[in-house]
């Protein structure tokens, strides 16, 4: 390997473009074959939305890890640790601890009470129409922000990995990514999507494991020596301490609290994560899924700690910052430094696969929510048959795919990290209070649910609009305008407690009582699994 | 054989869930579930926010070196991983021992009752 001893030559990266494309093409070809094979049994709505409930807990857990470890986790966190040291590490802790909310409070109860979407659970014992519409709107909002971030992220990744830096070339890549994603979801449904996520998770974790061992081997498997080398290269001992990024001012400290709250409470309310729990046959398998994903995700974040400090030590923050792709370039540059063009090609292909798998998961969630909640239950008032519903879902996939491509092209080059944070904040504010209340609070009513969902969604979006991410700062979307009256970048610390409060207030002020028989049914079902749909037998 | 999505609902409609809810057995299941998940959720959230507050407002303490370049902040951060894994394992073993047996007992009772009443088994495997 020619490059091991020398510093990373960023210009040389472009020479590996063909190799990157070849490895990525191989991934697409292999997954396409699998998606085609998996789709042959797709007949019913349960097949299309929930993969016939035929995945095992370990398969689904791997797919959840594949869904969750987006490009933002892999490239973003590695880069954040390489540049900001300890503060980047704190991100990964929030992302991991959040899974305990899903494990303890949500996953199994949700699997036992719902069929296809989050709205199934939220509207179980409340009035169908208003609750379903609200839940579908917040599902679509979360999926849209998340999808936009991934598509725009694809654009900026391209500039580094494929050496395409002009706007037209990046737009073309976004179109290709979008078209591939539409094809996967259209043909494969949830089953095909799940397989793409499983394959991608295995490749990503294996690739990260190899790089982690490699970095550790360089420092004689001594963590302290690795940290010391990171300090030496950065010439700043503070990279090992908290506060480099968030400790600057009182506002930034508060902002970190807000982000932490949104991360920890948002994960268990992300609709595309919730929908994955319907792909397993029983609540026990849902529990197993979460256990698997906690181990895989935890392990992966431990790898990113080594990779981040490894990139800081071996590549150096200055080289990373000046590379095309900026912070996101840390992991690919480290791969290039360690294993030359071949490892870079592999890691780049995995990063692409990551985007593809995550957008596929988001798209099928959004399509299911529209077809099942809005079309079948609200527009057709429950009279649509399953075949029509699936047909509507497939059409929705195409519409969402086209919107994602257009949005991705428009948002390309924008500050996109806030879109992911916003998705978490919206999920935690709009969805989590209603999920928790309807599962655990007997007295909870429709009015409480509607107030909490619209209040949480509205508060999160309005606060973001008036925050520094949209206007008034150097990295804002609109740099020249100044209407940032809310000082924090993340709205969670205000909007999440507000949504919990509104859910309580709406309920105590509600003169109507909900049907106690439905509450009894939901509670018995959620804890025992009575009447839950089992696997589809083909 | 594709399963009609409506069948479990139709089956469940004939069960008196309020009666099931009021049984001692179900109340015990509910108590066991809540007495584990609520305190545990509160505990891990407090521990996580204590960690975030320390990282935010006690930088000096977190930067104290313990072993080589490894400081208290890194150790506490890694302990968050350990506690997450430990709570996961603890919950799984608690569910297997205390929740699953009683839950499947109640489920079998209800579904067995359905079998007698309609002459065919319900809850997924029906034709």
UniProtKB/TrEMBL annotation, chain A:
Key word ATP-binding present: no
What highest taxon heads this organism's lineage?
Bacteria
Residues annotated as transmembrane? 18-36, 63-83, 89-110, 131-149, 169-189, 201-221, 256-278, 290-312, 342-371, 392-411, 417-439, 451-471, 491-509
Q: Subcellular location, in the record's words?
A: Cell membrane
Q: Name one Pfam family in it.
A: SSF
Which family would the database say this protein is a member of? Belongs to the sodium:solute symporter (SSF) (TC 2.A.21) family.
NCBIfam families, sorted: sss (TIGR00813)
Q: What is this protein called?
A: Cation acetate symporter
Q: Which organism is it from?
A: Pseudarthrobacter enclensis
UniProtKB/TrEMBL annotation, chain B:
The record's listing under InterPro entries reads:
DUF485
Looking at the UniProt entry, the stretches that span the membrane are 36-54, 66-92
Give the record's keywords alphabetically.
Membrane, Transmembrane, Transmembrane helix
What PANTHER family would the database entry show?
INTEGRAL MEMBRANE PROTEIN-RELATED, MEMBRANE PROTEIN
Q: What is this protein called?
A: Clumping factor B
């Amino acid at each position: 390997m020619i490059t091991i001893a020398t510093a990373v030559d960023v210009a040389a990266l472009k020479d590996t473009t063909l190799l990157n494309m070849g490895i990525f093409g191989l991934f697409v070809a292999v997954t396409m074959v699998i998606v085609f094979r998996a789709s042959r049994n797709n007949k019913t709505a349960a097949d299309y939305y929930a993969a016939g409930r035929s995945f095992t807990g370990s398969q689904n857990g791997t797919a959840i890890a594949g869904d969750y470890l987006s490009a933002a986790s892999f490239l973003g966190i590695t880069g954040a640790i390489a540049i900001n040291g300890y503060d980047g590490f704190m991100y990964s802790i929030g992302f991991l601890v959040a899974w305990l909310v899903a494990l303890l409070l949500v996953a199994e109860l949700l699997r036992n009470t719902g069929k296809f979407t989050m709205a199934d659970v939220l509207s179980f014992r409340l009035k169908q129409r208003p609750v379903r519409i609200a839940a579908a709107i917040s599902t679509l909002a979360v999926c849209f922000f998340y999808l936009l971030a991934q598509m725009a992220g694809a654009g900026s990744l391209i500039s580094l990995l494929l050496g395409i830096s002009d706007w037209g070339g990046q737009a073309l890549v976004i179109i290709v990514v979008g078209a591939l994603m539409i094809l996967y979801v259209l043909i494969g449904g949830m089953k095909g999507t799940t397989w793409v996520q499983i394959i991608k998770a295995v490749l990503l974790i294996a690739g990260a494991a190899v790089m982690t061992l490699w970095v550790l081997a360089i420092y004689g498997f001594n963590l302290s020596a690795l940290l010391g080398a990171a300090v030496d290269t950065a010439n700043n001992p503070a990279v090992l301490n908290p506060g480099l990024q968030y400790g600057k001012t009182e506002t930034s400290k508060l902002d970190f609290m807000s982000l932490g709250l949104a991360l920890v409470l948002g994960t268990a309310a992300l609709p595309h994560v919730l929908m994955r729990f319907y792909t397993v046959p029983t609540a026990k398998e849902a529990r197993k899924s979460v256990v698997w994903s906690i181990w895989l995700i935890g392990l992966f974040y431990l790898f990113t700690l080594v990779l981040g400090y490894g990139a800081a030590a071996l590549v150096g923050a200055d080289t990373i910052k000046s590379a095309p792709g900026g912070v996101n370039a840390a992991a690919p540059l480290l791969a290039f430094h360690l294993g030359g063009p071949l490892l870079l090609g592999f890691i780049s292909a995995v990063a692409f696969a990551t985007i593809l798998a995550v957008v596929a998961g988001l798209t099928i969630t959004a399509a299911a929510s529209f077809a099942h909640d809005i079309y079948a239950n609200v527009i057709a008032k429950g009279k649509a048959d399953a075949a029509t519903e699936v047909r509507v879902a497939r059409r929705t996939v195409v519409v969402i795919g086209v919107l994602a491509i257009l949005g991705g092209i428009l948002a390309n080059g924008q500050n996109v990290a806030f879109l992911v944070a916003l998705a978490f904040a919206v999920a935690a504010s709009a969805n989590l209070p209603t999920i928790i209340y309807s599962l655990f609070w007997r007295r909870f009513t429709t009015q409480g649910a509607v107030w909490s969902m619209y209040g949480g969604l509205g508060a999160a979006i309005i606060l973001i609009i008036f925050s520094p991410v949209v206007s008034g700062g150097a990295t804002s979307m609109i740099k020249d305008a100044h209407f940032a009256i809310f000082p924090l970048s993340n709205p969670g610390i205000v909007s999440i407690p507000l949504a919990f409060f509104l859910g309580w207030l709406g309920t105590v002020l509600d003169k109507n009582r909900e049907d106690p028989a439905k509450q009894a049914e939901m509670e018995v079902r959620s804890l025992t699994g009575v009447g839950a749909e089992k696997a589809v037998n083909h | 054989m594709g399963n009609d999505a409506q069948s479990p609902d139709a089956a469940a409609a004939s069960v008196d869930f309020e009666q099931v809810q009021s049984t001692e057995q179900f109340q015990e299941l509910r108590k066991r579930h809540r007495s584990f998940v609520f305190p545990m959720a509160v505990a891990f959230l407090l521990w996580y926010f204590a960690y975030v507050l320390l990282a935010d407002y006690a930088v000096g303490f977190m930067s104290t070196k313990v072993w080589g370049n490894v400081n208290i902040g890194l150790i506490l951060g890694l302990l968050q991983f350990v506690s997450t894994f430990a709570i996961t394992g603890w919950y799984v073993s608690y569910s297997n021992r205390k929740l699953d047996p009683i839950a499947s007992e109640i489920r079998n009772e209800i579904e067995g009752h359905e079998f007698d009443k309609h002459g065919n088994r319900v809850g997924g495997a029906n034709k």
